[in-house]
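Hi V.,

You were right to ask for the full record rather than a summary. Here it is.
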Amino acid sequence: MTASDAHILVRLDLNNPVFQENLLSLQKAERHSALETLKKLRQLTWNQVYSDHGLKWEKIVSMDPSAGISAIYSLRLTQSRRATAYREGAYIRFLTIAPDHDSTYGKK
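Predicted structure:
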């Protein structure tokens, strides 16, 4: 990533079927909260995502990423839910919404 890349707006990739199932399975209030976070993300630059205290963008070191993905990250999607995602260029590519905090990091 170059310095200029950090100032581009985030683009969302919500096409992962697991992420879609997780999102659509949320209760109405939590789903609305998740959509508000996604709306917020579209208005941020990557620098803002990295430094936003509400999103808490964190690298997950307890899980090995799939081939072609340099790292998997978690971010707060709602008060009680975190999503997993990775960055590819301008895109944040969502993978899952964890049912609880610990499962985001692969812990039992």
